[in-house]
């Protein structure tokens, strides 16, 4: 049988952990009347207590209490209190070993407990094998088995047996997965897969390594090269539907493992495993390349539009003096004509009095050349970049397998026309080509007096294809990011079943009438209240006039006494190197144990090497430079450890460990209770090789960059981060951090700035159980929506934008619930759905219905904002914490001029995750030592008001040395379970 370890020491301990809260103890160990009547049949208080305690242990965690093992004190007290006996009675119990054995036999007989047998083992392996087809995480399988045995009243065996059964199930599941992927392959398939491990004609790389490369720049050359990669993947011609033979989680895991292997390693695999791994790599590689090709097209189109817009502006600026001269000249001519009419003189002579007629005629010609289109649009300049698009467009359209919803059928019809023209080498667009997709902006350019302009028709079609791909109206076979919208959602049958059983995982009433009645009643009440307060000028620090809304800014000053405390604590915090800080925090939390080996699940053998790799990400130094800055370390060692131990999921688990530790810190409660949070995007420029991977957002200047979008709790713990394109609105990613973090935080209220909100986000936030509170810039221009058009809210008229379309919400209610359920269950990410909904054409039913729902919630929020200064203060304080955290992150991420220079998106994600993990470690370390600093100040005779502690912040870094050589030496000043000495207070 397999003997490999699949559980860490901490996981083994957690499996049989006893309840540690009063509520859990009561839930697990409260006896029924039947229980008590059976227990009371024992003679004497000691026997009754011992019998009852054994019953408790058999029920949960499901084990026999060892002879020399004392019971958990809180459990013992709870049992003793129920039996009305003293806790000390336990000392008299079980002095005869036979008594314990007899009680154990009785408990098994009376309560139906069974010993674990070989039959149970075989059933366990069979049960877990089915689950192991979905996940190979040992802790998940072991937890499932233990819960199953508890439900069957089977006494748990030793954890070695549980681990052995789980490991055997993983081994069996692996064999089944390998067979499922390898058996459908023909000999021809296998030969083609084997060829992937051979070197290309240039001899520098293997075909597999070349196929897995990401595009370098968004231009025609790299687009064509990437299309060649997709063709090579497609040429494998794998059996249809092979990707559906295996659960997506396992397929991704196999592909990820294979991606870390050298061709020589893959060649050594047992045959079935080798072909299964290559199939998984091919499936994932094909989807990745498809998505990257679509993204390249999106970015190239974006570049063409930006280039056209810039040229338009430059031409206008360059022509400014000439235009001004013409305006002044025609002003003089106009004045001469007016005077000529008034005097009845010859108008032509009047013109010639200003300038010779030939010069006038020439100036008209010049003016016509200077003139821009009537609508001052730059779109006509797009045609100048047609050659760029034309270099790759035929191959691009030929290689993608496109499908369309009815809303985009005309776009797909146009694409088919272009495909036909490409295959026939035709130059002229057929007269009957579809033109319904052409928007008014394009029509003058595309539909000319001589027929359809080929250049602008193709440019328009490819631009509209980009938009339809974004929204999901057009989808691509084999893609992950551009599938049919319906494929992302919970299957209709499953949704109907959940709804019928009232098991939808949503935080609101799922009956449409009840939901709308509750929310609209509240909305009408709030509108009436705020209208009355506005009329009476009773809104706190706010006034609504005919010209709009004015709100008095908040006073953000920190009290002088708080500033003095901030300064005092800063002066006595210990100086510490970042390496020492990370080692100390790991001693407290053991966060490094989560960086397990991708294949074996083992923890890293060299913890210092692991911390070095994490720090290289966090300070943006990179592995090569870090190897030079860390004596005794080599690039090869760091690279190997990163390949096998650093992953998105290991970073997430380690971050959750630190966030949970911060959540449990009593001192952190001065800043909040962990139920509120904020999120904000922080822009980092992309430089060197990564420059072409960045996007441009005018908000951050003209340089390309990436955004690290981070969520931070009210206790300053950064509990989620994500690398996103700077061109995408922040609101797209707000829900991801709230739904997909792995910490114990239970966020109830969330804050963002203006970029973090849309009506779609307001709607989904409410449906999923979060109170959304953005700080909206220019709030007076953000309109309120009312249930009925004839309602009279005179004082609010300047802010009312229209009437809610409740009929539309009712018509699409089930679609809204299905979308929210899919997001909550993790069938699809919130950001992907919000991105598609935001790209939908305005007439899309679901997008419009969700917007109307969001308008209800946004209006309710604004009405609360107008009434509550406290709400404004909460939001302001929450956002300030996020902005302060960004300053710390900027200080830590100081190498390479603070620029992202990694070309691959995976490495960029690791940079963001490493940075977030180290900032979380700094926050935790500072919190612990701030508490010690305040205790020391109080011990030194300083009176400190607890109300001032909220003004302290664990985001300082002046006392932390982030630079120099990175040595991992345990400080002699810090023993096990001890802390660094604080610096002495300077004399007053």
Automatic annotation (TrEMBL):
Q: What InterPro entries would the database entry show?
A: DUF4158 (IPR025296), Tn3-like_transpos (IPR047653), Tn3_Tnp_DDE_dom (IPR002513)
Q: Which residues form a coiled coil?
A: none
What family does this chain come from, according to its entry? Belongs to the transposase 7 family.
What is one GO biological process annotated to this record?
DNA transposition
Q: Where is the composition biased (Polar residues)?
A: 674-695
One Pfam family of this chain: DDE_Tnp_Tn3
What's the gene?
Answer: tnpA
Alphabetically sorted, this entry's keywords are: DNA recombination, DNA-binding, Plasmid, Transposition
Q: Which organism is it from?
A: Citrobacter freundii
Query: Which residue range or ranges hold the Tn3 transposase DDE domain?
Result: 580-966
The name this protein goes by in its record: Tn6346-like transposase
According to the entry, every stretch annotated as the DUF4158 domain falls at: 6-169
Its lineage opens with: Bacteria, Pseudomonadati, Pseudomonadota, Gammaproteobacteria, Enterobacterales
Region: Disordered; residue ranges are: 672-697
Q: So which domain of life are we looking at?
A: Bacteria
GO molecular function annotation = DNA binding; transposase activity
